[in-house]
Design brief:
This protein is an alpha+beta fold and about 110 residues long. It has one domain: 3-Layer(aba) Sandwich (Rossmann fold), CATH 3.40.50.150. The chain is built from two helices and six strands; from the N terminus they run E-E-E-H-E-H-E-E. The C terminus is likely disordered. This is DUF2249 domain-containing protein.
């Protein structure tokens, strides 16, 4: 999976990589970044989500340290890509209030996404 050609680049405050949006989803590729950038960009992207959009993260591996921190508010699916990367799709759970402001995005031990 790659970022669709019809997706338009958008400005996302706090992001360290370009973000893109189409009618269904937000997308970003953090596969060439090191910790803590994938986690930081995922957190910024998750704040964009509503009940109509999903977030697709392209990365070199799943951000395993992120999943326990967000599992109450988001569902996620991991798809392995041909180029030794993964696509992680995040979907906001319905009827949930999301507060991501206090989640630690530091990289320590197994919490690293790199």
């Amino acid at each position: 999976m790659i970022i669709p050609q019809n997706a338009k680049e958008i400005n996302v405050e706090g992001a360290t990589v370009p973000f893109f949006k189409d009618e269904d989803a937000y997308y970003f590729d953090s596969s060439l970044t090191g910790p803590p950038e994938p986690m930081v960009n995922a957190m910024v992207g998750l704040q964009l989500l509503d009940d109509k959009h999903k977030l697709v993260m392209i990365n070199h591996k799943p951000p395993m340290g992120l999943f326990p921190k967000i599992q109450n508010s988001f569902k996620y699916e991991i798809v392995e890509l041909e180029n030794d990367k993964v696509a992680v799709t995040f979907i906001k759970k319905t009827n949930t209030t999301v507060n991501l402001k206090n989640i630690d995005t530091s990289c320590s031990g197994t919490g690293c996404s790199h």
